[in-house]
Amino acid sequence: xxxxxxxxxxxxxxxxxxxRPSCGRNGAGVDLAACTLRIEEAKQMLETTDVSxxxxxxxxxxxxxxxxxxxxxxxxxxxxxxYRQRWRRCRRRGARLWSGNI
Length: 102
Prior knowledge:
It is built from four helices and no strands. By secondary structure, the chain is mainly α. The chain has one domain: Orthogonal Bundle (Arc Repressor Mutant, subunit A). α1 (about 35-50) packs across α4. The longest helix has 14 residues, at about 80-95. The relative contact order is 0.13. The model is unreliable at about 1-10, about 15-20 and about 25-30 (pLDDT under 50).
């Protein structure tokens, strides 16, 4: 990817931020901090529904499911499906959720 409006002699690769996975509608790239509310909404849906990961990604506004999974895992330290499985296992046992950043 190249910056628009530059001559061939001054072209340089786009900054890394433009290559980040998108988490926005229409594929707009955003950083992890901007996805915080979407991640929280996704966590709630994972905890309380049986909706598929694909449907949750679409519901919270992530353009691509793969990008949603990467962003969720970066934010929570586990993949969305693993989060759901651990949450349910702990709830059945009446135990507190595992330690970590969740």
